[in-house]
Structure formats: C-alpha cells, structure tokens
Amino acid sequence: QVQLVESGGGLVQAGGSLRLSCAASGTIVSINAMGWYRQAPGKQRELVARITSGGGTFYPDSVKGRFTISRDNAKNTVNLQMNDLKPEDTAVYYCNADLWPLASPKGNYWGQGTQVTVSS
Questions:
Q1: Phi, psi of 88, rounded to the nearest 5 degrees
Q2: 96 within 8 A of 108, measured Cβ to Cβ
Q3: 9-48 burial, b if ≥16 CB within 10 A, otherwise e?
Q4: Residue 114 Ramachandran class (φ > 0 left, ψ -120 to 50 alpha, else beta)
C-alpha cells in the first residue's frame, strides 16, 4: 500500500522559515510530478509548488521567491523550504504525487496534511 507521509509543520513567527518533507512509502514503480498544496480554513485547496521528475518547477506568484521545492528521486521524497513566511501562509499543507504503485494502476495520491501556522 502506497502512502505519502508529511512532516515538518509547526508554528513559526512571521519572517521565519520551515521545511516540510514528504516521503512516499510502499513499492513504487515510478513517480512523475510531485507537489505541495495548501488549504486554509474556508478556502479552496491551492497549489503551492510542483516539481517534475526531471526537476522542472512551478510556483504561483504568491510564494515565488520565498518557497523552494526539491526532490530526491532515489529516496522518493519531496521537500518544501519555506522562507520569509507570512500569516497568510497559514494552512494545512498536503503532499501530492502522480505515481505508479507496483500492485495498482497509476494514480494521484495525497498525504494526510501537516499544519503550518505563522503568527504575526
């Protein structure tokens, strides 16, 4: 059974930094794109950062220049370095991956989420 497990959330003051990590466990044939999304109370889930298997990245303007996504294909992990955090970054952050498990068809998978709270 494939799982995405996040870690690294927490409480930080505005201007501070946090690093989120996500590890895909289970027997996996391949992983295509990986990404991070967030959802604040009362708002829709939104893309924060995305990285292809080849290392191409995408960021929305709201986090560009502050957040950096990276991945380790050998370890099936993806990280999100968040700098200069703002109160509006407060949300539950979710790891996401397009992957192909050995015993299942290709699909899109989500982690359970990790809370990030930025105080002003």
A1: -70, -5
A2: yes
A3: beebeeeeebebbbbbeeebeebebbbbbbeeeeeeeeeb
A4: beta
Residue with tokens 């996040």: 6
Size of the chain in residues? 120
41: its two tokens: 């109370």
At residue 1, the pLDDT reads 86
Strand partners, 35: 50, 96
What is the rounded distance in angstroms from the CA atom of residue 81 to the CA atom of residue 18? 6
Tell me the per-residue pLDDT of 5-62, one tens digit each, with 9 for 90 and over. 999 999 999 999 999 999 999 999 899 999 999 999 999 999 999 999 999 999 999 9
